[in-house]
Amino acid sequence: MSDNTRSRKITEGIERTPNRAMLRAVGFGDDDFDKPIIGVANAYSTLTPCNAGLNNLAKHAVNALREADTLPLANQSGCQDRHLRVHRSLV
């Protein structure tokens, strides 16, 4: 998918080297920088019952975005697996 104009603003050019380094640390590969990066905000919490179903909704959104050949970044469900891999590599 080539319609990643906004994503390129944070990933292309020598001045964006630190951005690419951070994204590589969470599992991005060379081909991933050609795809649109989509953020998924997730307000899941166990504090109140009204937020209990939000994590499942965010997981469905992340899966749908992956199927659409984009790169979802989620603050709960999407990045946790990548974060754990990064953590393990640093320990």
**Which percent band covers the strand fraction?**
5-15%
- Based on CA inertia axes, which overall geometry fits? elongated
* Share of helix, binned: 40-55%
How many separate helices? 4
Termini gap: 36 Å
Flag low-confidence runs. none
Radius of gyration: 15 Å
Q: Main β-sheet, in a few words? A: 2 strands, parallel
Q: How many beta strands in the DSSP annotation?
A: 2
Report on this model:
The chain is mostly helical and 91 residues long. Helices cover 48% and strands 9% of the residues. The protein is built from 4 helices and 2 strands, in the order H-H-E-H-E-H. A two-stranded parallel ribbon has the order 1-2. The longest helix has 14 residues. The N and C termini lie far apart (36 Å). The model has no long low-confidence stretch (mean pLDDT 81).
Quick overview of this protein structure:
This protein is mostly helical. 48% of the residues lie in helices and 9% in strands. Strands 1-2 form a two-stranded parallel ribbon.
